Amino acid sequence: MPNVGPLEIVLILVIALIVLGPRRLPDVARSVGRGMREFRSALSGEGRDDEHDEEPEPLEGPEPVEEPEPVEEPAPTPSGERESQG
């Protein structure tokens, strides 16, 4: 792979200035720099995202709803007898 000298870097910057324009060039350079920084930190294993590699704690949800106890119906009476209500 050939080395990139100062003349090649100047040529790349001039072409970028012509293509992107003076207003967008700083924004593009800033985002490229951020991307390179994130890439390098991901490769080296350094970074602030290491704390997210641990297992997440289970979320506490609402308490489970207890099912109501079934209501017992009165025992059936013999067919010849009736209970008096009253």
Number of strands: 0
Radius of gyration: 38 Å
Averaged pLDDT, please?
Answer: 78
* Structural category: mainly alpha
- Beta-strand share of residues: under 5%
Residues in helix, %: 40-55%
Number of helices in the DSSP assignment: 1
- What's the shape? rod-shaped
Q: Regions with pLDDT < 50 over 5+ consecutive residues? A: none
Biggest sheet statistics = none
User: Order of SSEs, N→C?
Assistant: H
Gap from first CA to last CA: 104 Å
Secondary structure layout:
Blueprint (H helix, E strand, L loop, with lengths): L5 H39 L42
Question: What can you see in these coordinates?
Answer:
It contains 1 helix and no strands. The protein has 86 residues and is an all-alpha fold. It is rod-shaped and about 110 Å long. The mean pLDDT is 78.
Summarize the structure in short.
The protein is an all-alpha fold and 86 residues long.
Tags for this entry?
86 residues; mainly alpha; rod-shaped
